[in-house]
Design goal:
Elements (H helix, E strand, L loop, with lengths): L5 E10 L2 E4 L1 H4 L6 H8 L3 E4 L6 H16 L8 E5 L10 H8 L6 E5 L5 H15 L4 E9 L9 H4 L4 E10 L5 E9 L7 E2 L10 E2 L1 H22 L7 E6 L4 H9 L12 H4 L11 H4 L8 E8 L3 E8 L1
The structure holds oxa(dethia)-CoA.
Oxa(dethia)-CoA binds next to α2, α6 and α7.
């Protein structure tokens, strides 16, 4: 395949230090492990501990991705962080990461597209590599959902976790890299899922049922579009990494697609919904199994509403 550019050469993740099992909610909220597992598939999630925030997690994941790639931070040209939970309105998380990993001086910016953020940012990073503006991009998805979720609201508190995933993308030789991207948004559906700034009193609200039904439609639509317009068959796909919002969403979406369930990456049971981090935190578990020539599809969806997907050739 000619023309593929942004190749993943290193992956890393970081999770909040505090592991919270479903039983941890039982006393404070009127909920139980059985409901959470049956309705969401989540068994535990990680919350930040004192001293941790979106930028520290992002920097930790970035250092691991660089180490995995065998590169020093000086090798990076641009830091791009997908997040909706920067600890402050300014500076951006990407700027703080640049300082923390010893890469101050290079371009750094955040991109906000909620749970679709990683897939959005991957398309931007790929474009920067294609245009020649950068040779290596540190691409991060990071969110500290505990900063915008009401821990007294059982309908949302149990769903989300804190984490960051990072990848090092480099201009490859044309064999392996991103092939195609889909981006979409509909601000008319904004009332279905929204939250105030981190730390404000306006906590996350979602119309779970409506978002659920929409997500089950949008995942297969994006996957089928990417396959059809790039002439890729389901057999050529090794992994699909959907945004990790709910295992029932993923299962229902899979039933609509001609793709065996074992190709679908699911880690909600361990991490919950980490928003923009949920796709890139999946890479460390599968990267070592990548089969050259096959494809990986990453598909995000979330507040905005936003949706985005990427077709990647291994
Ligand atoms: O990442 C961004 C995108 N977000 C999503 O994709 C989320 C999509 N939505 C969902 O995943 C699901 O809608 C939820 C997991 C949020 C909720 O599951 P559901 O099966 O749609 O439940 P529901 O909202 O229809 O609520 C069913 C019942 C309600 O009680 P009543 O009104 O039937 O008496 C809720 O009050 O479950 C109750 N409930 C709970 N019960 C025990 C809601 N949360 C809990 C809880 N424990 N934690």
């Amino acid at each position: 395949m000619n023309g593929v550019v942004g190749k993943i050469v290193g992956v890393g993740r970081a999770l909040g230090e505090r592991v919270v099992t479903n039983d941890g909610f039982q006393n404070a909220l009127n909920t139980d492990n059985a409901w959470i597992v049956e309705r969401t598939g989540i068994k535990e999630r990680h919350f930040v501990a004192d001293g941790e925030n979106c930028a520290t997690l992002a920097a930790d994941a970035s250092n691991k991705a660089l180490e995995h790639a065998g590169l020093k931070s000086e090798a990076i040209d641009l830091i791009l962080c997908a997040t909706s939970t920067a600890p402050e309105s300014m500076p951006s998380v990407a700027c703080l990461v640049g300082d923390m990993i010893g890469a101050a001086g290079i371009g750094a910016m955040d991109l906000a597209a909620a749970c679709a953020g990683y897939s959005y940012a991957a398309s931007v990073a790929d474009s920067m590599l294609r245009s020649g503006a950068a040779r290596r991009v540190l691409l991060i998805g990071a969110d500290v959902m505990t900063s915008i979720v009401d821990q007294k609201d059982r309908s949302t508190a149990v769903l989300f976790g804190d984490g960051a995933g990072a990848v090092v993308l480099e201009r490859g030789s044309g064999e392996s890299g991103f092939v195609d991207h889909i981006l979409g948004a509909d601000g008319g559906m904004a009332p279905l899922l929204r939250a105030g700034h981190p730390g404000s009193d306006e906590k996350l609200y979602q119309n779970g049922r409506e978002v659920f039904k929409w997500a089950v439609r949008i995942i297969p639509q994006m996957v089928e579009k990417l396959l059809a317009r790039n002439d890729v068959s389901p057999e050529q796909v090794q992994y699909i990494i959907p945004h990790q919002a709910n295992t029932r969403i993923i299962q229902a979406a899979v039933r609509k697609m001609d793709i065996p369930e074992e190709k679908i990456v699911v880690n909600l049971d361990r991490f919950g919904n980490t928003s923009a981090a949920s796709i890139p935190i999946s890479y460390p578990d599968i990267y070592g199994h990548f089969e050259p020539g096959k494809y990986v599809i990453t598909a995000g969806f979330g507040a905005g509403l936003t949706w985005a997907a990427n077709l990647y050739r291994i």
